[in-house]
Amino acid sequence: MNFQLNLYAFVLLFAFLQGLFYVYQFSIRGISEERASDLWLAGLILALCITNVPSMLGFMGIYILGQDWWFFPQDTGLIIGPLVYFYLKTQTNAQFKFKAVDYWHFLPYVVYFFYHLLVFLSGKEGVDWWAQRIHHPFHLGNLHSVTEIVSLLVYTILSLRLYRRYRRWLPTERSDTEAMLLNWYKNFLALIVLGVVSAQVLYVLGFFVSISYWDDWILRAIVAFNICYISFNGYLQPQPHQMVFNTNIPIESNFGSANLKTAIKKTEKPDPAELEIWCKKVEVVVQTEKLYLNLELTLSDLSARLHSHNSWISYVINTGFQKNFNDFVNAYRVADFQKKVNDPKLSHYTLLALAYECGFNSKSTFNRAVKKATGKMPSDFIKG
Q1: Which 8-state DSSP code applies to residue 347?
Q2: Collapsing DSSP states into helix, strand and coil, what is residue 236?
Q3: Which residues face 93 on adjacent strands?
Q4: Is residue 301 domain-shared with residue 220, that is, in the same domain?
Q5: pTM of this prediction?
Q6: pLDDT at position 103
Q7: Is residue 94 scored above 80 in pLDDT?
Q8: Given 42, 212, 236, 248, which residue has the most CB atoms within 10 angstroms?
Q9: What CA dihedral angle connects 246, 252, 253 and 254, to 10 degrees?
Q10: Are residues 101 and 202 in the same domain?
């Protein structure tokens, strides 16, 4: 063994140590704040760290996992997909409960793990015999690689579909969407696909040119970047306790509202007079109580105040005002901003301070809402 800490090894080691640090942080926060999503993310980061260990040690000149221990269950590729998927399910639904049927998602990894562990525990002679008589002749290694690729792609697609439904649902339920968009998660899914494609490109190139051991570093660097990327962004990601994205409710494309034929349980075409009455009720409550000033106002909050159901209030807003919930609330905030922007009593306020004063919770949301509602930027409303 010729130990060395070169640049290749250092990058992987840095990501590995940072990953372990965040595994600890996510575990502590997940338990103390009862955030299941943090525990899933801790498991995902740990799995990514483990899968990089053989290469990391190899670049350091330590080859035990690639030689004597090559049959040890050191590959976590089959568990990464389910962890990615269940992180999103628990992050978007704080009340998500893991059911017995969900264990099936982890069956491929369990089979892989115990298959390799039992053969490994048979000793070096047992491993050599099994490899020569069973493992290599039946191409079980190749089967595992193909299964791993399929698993990653399938769960990436499932996660992307869930993510897109969540993004369509979000503005129908919450007025503070900016911090809940999970843009970094979409980028992470893209990096998974990049890793899979890169692996296949290098594999094909290996038939035509000599692919050295060091070229494996490209793939490991992608994994290392993923570890750092999701650790940092995941730790900054808030999760309101009342966040409940119900994946069983279909989402329409026009306003992102639920399928009202099944959700409202009223007539297929509600009486226009009744709809007008409810529009007035919604307007009165929002205006007189200034609910729009609540930075974290949700459709559930408004429905509870009106002693009604989310589906019906959503329908009233979508149909009566031709807006989704987010745009509806932001319209009141923009109107409030237009009143206050040139108020002499608030002349010492910055535009951002006024934004918070009117119920917005970020500069980007404020700018976008004002531009969408008026066609102008906030600074255009300042006189003189």
Answers
A1: T
A2: helix
A3: 244
A4: no
A5: 0.86
A6: 96
A7: yes
A8: 42
A9: -120
A10: yes
CA–CA separation, 156 vs 361, rounded Å?
A: 31
Which of 236, 252, 284 delimits the end of a domain?
Answer: 236
Has residue 247 been placed in a domain? no
Answer yes or no: are the C-beta atoms of 40 and 185 closer than 8 Å.
Answer: no
Is the pLDDT confidence value at 254 over 50? no
Residues 319-346: tens digit of each pLDDT: 999 999 999 999 999 999 999 998 888 8
Tokens 């129908």 correspond to: 172
Per-residue pLDDT reduced to its tens digit, 160-219: 999 999 999 999 998 888 888 899 999 999 999 888 888 778 777 776 777 666 667 888
Average pLDDT on 84-102 reads 93
How many residues comprise the chain? 384
Instruction: Find the domain containing 46 and state its range.
Output: 7-236
Q: Is the distance from CB of 242 to CB of 299 less than 8 angstroms?
A: no
**Shared-domain flag, residues 229 and 266:** no
Q: How far, in Å, CA of 253 to CA of 256, rounded?
A: 5
- Where does residue 308 rank: exposed (0-12), middle (13-18), buried (19+ CB within 10 A)? middle
Instruction: Say what the pLDDT of residue 151 is.
Output: 95
Among the candidates 171, 203, 236, a domain finishes at 236
Number of domains in the chain: 2
Alpha-helix runs per DSSP H in the chain: 7-32, 36-59, 77-92, 107-120, 123-130, 140-173, 183-205, 216-236, 260-263, 272-288, 299-305, 310-315, 325-340, 351-357, 363-374
Residue 254 lies in a domain: no
End-to-end CA distance of the chain: 74
62 and 123 co-located in one domain: yes
What would the two tokens of residue 223 be? 């994994």
Distance between CA atoms of residues 180 and 177, nearest Å: 5
CA distance 233 to 183: 10
Q: Exposed (0-12), middle (13-18) or buried (19+): which is 245, by Cβ within 10 Å? A: buried
Q: Is residue 87 located within the same domain as residue 184?
A: yes
Please choose, from the candidates 230, 217, 77, 90, the residue with its C-alpha nearest in 3D space to the C-alpha of residue 155. 77
Tokens of 90: 């628990």
The enclosing domain of 369 has a CATH number of 1.10.10.60
* C-beta separation of 80 from 159 below 8 A: no
Within 33-105, residue ranges assigned H as helices are 36-59, 77-92
CA dihedral 33, 36, 42, 45 (to 10 degrees): -140
Beta bridge partners of 298: 174
